[in-house]
Amino acid sequence: MNSNPQPAFSGGGNIALKIPRFRFAETVVFYRDTLRLPHLGQRDTSYVFQFGTMRLWLDEVPHYSQTDVWLELSTNDLEEAVDYLTASQTPIRDELAPLGDFRGHWIFDPAGVVHLLSQHEEMQTV
Fold first, then answer.
1. What's the DSSP call for residue 34?
2. What backbone torsions phi and psi does residue 38 show, to the nearest 5 degrees?
3. In a domain, 90, yes or no
4. Burial 29-54 (b: 16+ CB within 10 A, else e)
5. Is residue 125 part of a domain?
6. Counted domains in the chain
7. Which stretch of DSSP H or E encloses residue 39?
8. CATH code, domain carrying 94
9. Beta strands 46-51 and 54-61: pairing type?
10. Helix, strand or coil for residue 68?
11. pTM for this one?
12. pLDDT tens-digit map of 39-67
């Protein structure tokens, strides 16, 4: 048995742009009308577009003053990944945003970029 498990990580299927309300409408127009990316649907105040092999979520955030990029990070074993990241001084930050029934966790990279850590088979859908 491996005493120091090493989970596998890869980019997930989602990118989210957290956009201030005052820039949101023009940003939706840019991706929908200017770039003409395929629109996959809406959920609450989010628009979802096909972005190559990924889904691009445009999320309206009323209290933001600038746009943030949030990434999805997939792993083959969620519990093992949490143990590994915690041991590597990467704290779990689930207070950031509710995940509801979605099995995952929020983490930050050292530069402050938010990542949604999820297991491979648990892909978010519109």
1. I
2. -60, 125
3. yes
4. eebeeeeebeebeeeeebbbbebeee
5. no
6. 1
7. strand 39-43
8. 3.10.180.10
9. antiparallel
10. strand
11. 0.82
12. 999 999 999 999 999 999 999 999 999 99
- Going by C-alpha positions, the residue among 86, 71, 79 that lies closest to residue 103 is 79
Task: List, in order, residues 6 or more apart from 96 with CB less than 8 Å away.
Answer: 106, 114
pLDDT at 126 over 50: no
Is the Cα torsion angle 27, 32, 36, 42 positive or negative in sign?
A: positive
Residue 122 and residue 91: Cα distance in Å, rounded? 21
- Give residue for tokens 């991706």: 31
Find, among 126, 113, 120, 98, the residue nearest to 18 by Cα.
113
For residue 120, what are its two tokens?
Answer: 């491979």
Alpha helices in 1-126 (DSSP H): 21-29, 78-87
Which has more pLDDT, 125 or 104? 104
What's the rounded Cα separation, in Å, for the pair 47 and 126?
Answer: 9
Q: Which residue has the tokens 């096909």?
A: 50
Q: Is 86 helix (H, G, I), strand (E, B) or coil?
A: helix
